[in-house]
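Colleagues,

Please find the record for the two-part complex below.
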Amino acid sequence: MPPVSRQEKTICPIRGSSLRHLDPRITFRFDLGKAIAITLLMAGASGLSAAASRGRWHSQVLSNGLRIFALQDASINTATVYVTYFVGAVEDPHGLCGDAHLLEHMMFRGSPNVASGEFAFWIREVGGELQGSTGLDRSVFYETIPSTDLELALYLEADRMRSLQLSPGAFINERRVVVSEAEGRADSETEQIRNVAWAALTHTQQDTCPAVGLPVAIRRLTINDVRELYQRYYCPRDAVVIIVGNAEPSRMIKLATKYFDGIPSSRECWRSKTHEAPTEKAPNTPVIVIRSNGRSSGIYLCFNLGSPFTKRWYSMFLFGRLFGEGTDSFLHKLLVQGGNWAGPVQFSVEPREGGAIGSIFVGGVVSNQLDRLAERVVYALRVAADTSIDEGSLKRMKRLTQAELTAEWITSQGKANMLSQAITLYRRDYRLDGAIKLLREVTAADVKSTAKSMVAESPIIISEDSK
Amino acid sequence: MGINITRLLAKSLTVSILFLSVGGLGEHVVLAQSGTLELRCHKCSQLIQEPVIRKSRILSLANSEITLVETSRLRTTIQLDILGAGPACADDPLKAIIAAAVVRRSVDKSGLIDDGATADLVDRVAEPDVTIVASGPSSSSGRWFSELEGSILTPTIGQSEFDTIRRNVVTSVARAPTRPLRYGSLLADTAYTPVDVSTLIRTVRNSASADSRVSILKWIRQHYRVPSFRMAVSAPSNSSIIRQVVGIVQSFDHTPQVVVESRCELHDQSRRVLPSHFHLTANTPQDAIFIAGSPLLMNRRESPLLMVANRLLGSGPESRLRRTVRDQRGLSYDVRSTIDLQASGIPWVITASSSRKDFLALVGEIASQVQQLGKQGPTSQELSWAKESLLNERAMNSENPSHELYGLLSGIPQDETLRITLETITCSDIANVVSEAFLSHCGRIVVVGSEIDFKLIDKLLGPICSGNEGNVEWIGLGELTNGRFDSERRRQD
């Protein structure tokens, strides 16, 4: 067994250097909301750059179009680098469902400077953790490392953005791995259902290709398919880098500039989407998807939470939890009391470009009872709209939500995740204190109003048969 | 409400207190007085000055252990392991699961529970303990700590709420076979416990438990009050929780006493009772194998050795299994080894799944890698890398309270002791511990899929698990969509 793969020629170029040697001069003071808007507006304009801060925040657009945001947190000792590329399953060419996902895997398979497997090796050696994931409309990579090793993560991310190596041998192995992942992923059916529901909620056409891909399609992918996607989307002009760590933001930006600024944005590279900020008021018509086959048989009640980090968003969120989260939920109690049924009731929220989809899954029934269950879910929604919200339950749910928001904000990784969502999906700032303030302001009347608005129109019912 | 957990437990026994002494004695001994928790930055001679942890100390109260981590955080987090209250230690595992669900519900009402640790109770049927993690703002920690202890020790629950919980647990147990991979994992985990999950499910299927609310509440009073727990608290130095706990402990006799972990003895029973091979015949998209190593009867002080060994075997992208099975051969996306340092018997399980056509190659490659590590050990370069990576990871985890508390309760030192311990670990130590777990006799082999030839699997495994001969049990799971269970069940010796 050979030792851990390390090429002798690959010497991490930043060993021994330190952030403290960097020049901390860049500081500008803008309104953050405006800064983000301006930064995003200017994203495609080569040669232009902007920088902004409001106390903690700095952002800058490099000459190649890459947008960098940096946040200092003196209470932590780790740093997280979060890179978002705006390519996901919707960009998969027709019949090649899984192209973006396979490319995400290939990003760990080396470059001329970093051998296959070394990316993880370097990060894990300093105690860090790393992850890549592919969604419907984006691919995300992050590394969490000690703040003192920030430069290592920036170097590695810039290196693979600049010069990914797609070797045939590694490609064939990784394609098998991705096929294996797609075969084993039970949640891809759920994702497809959400895609269908989201299309109905937003009145858009939506390809239902799951982000993980379909095994039969992945097997057909060639190295050229992956290369084409890489050249078109994995370039500075179509990426956002977010850095959270215990260092001066200006230093973090300068360090990122050092590694990312020289990466060219090729002619093929351009963003395919408009990236408009979501509207404040999303349509309230819920969608019910009946899944009558496969591993995820059941009823999915889906609704659009609309523009996030607003009072309305938190009202919708709290309603979703109270109505359909677990055995304590309104829906579960109503269904259990109404018959001998005790299947799972699960509420989840998935951020999406233009809003967020809340979905409540009700399962545990055989196929021929699904229509009846759907009727009962609609009935429950109507009853909920006419029932007063229990103040005690609402208070408890607000406390729980606040605890979760706070827990997420403790680590650099959690912060980077929240900020990434806020910036790349919603063109907004996110502040924990602001979120908690809005959450606390939500009253039982707000939640009830949400319920009423959801039953104002009949739900759209879609039957999905996976046969 | 308002009763301090340590006081309540202490009252029920004649208690004496020992402050574990390392390096000196006082009213309480500081184990890691780490104004600066010195942890290396890789080879760059820098030190991470960890400002979060100020000091930690371990207090003992009869059979219980309390670890206090004083931090500068604004949030207080508690992990409480109630030893021996889990289903694996109970005469009636279903009763223990329902009891845990009732306690969880009770705690959940406080709005503080982090349900990551207590979710999926059915999947925790192999657990000897019940774990509860809660966190909340430090400013009101005294108040919610009282609420928390009240809801654990004396849960209040109405009849209709109890019926809902009970029905939900029973349904979940009965439906477990509809998730073959989870079920396979459960069978592997129960290699370390006397719980026969198949029997449990059949019992539930055939006659739902008749346990009443009164009997469950009585059970909770009996099992959750026994003063055998481990608790870790991460809170600011001036927190009322810290003051409460320290004050209570100080008020008792300081006579040293050996700490005894009153756990049920699990591993020996499991070997006698249960078969060593399971085959779940299920129509799954992929075939899967779970190899539960032989139970390791090790002291918690040996946690660092096991963590390093697991890191080298299959716990990360640089491990042997990941590099060979996944990166070099592309046989499986999901291949890994996991180790639970908190559980008795230290479950160490290798898991992998692949498409049907790759499955035999997958089994052969796993066997080859495990054999190589068990016989030859890691290279010195690998070992040195694993140690450094672990040390650095611990420094990173100190930022995340739940990771930090898990580490503490797993017996992983958080100070310079960790580095000293790691330095003593040799390549032979790694080979020995892998060999002990996986060469010769294993705890159990579980295969999920259809058309599996177990004799061929045995042959491919070769020298690993060579003591596990015959004694195969087949469980037919029927169709996944209707959850029909027990279409066939037979044993072959």
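The longest strand of chain A covers residues 78-85.

Comments are welcome before we finalize the supplementary table.
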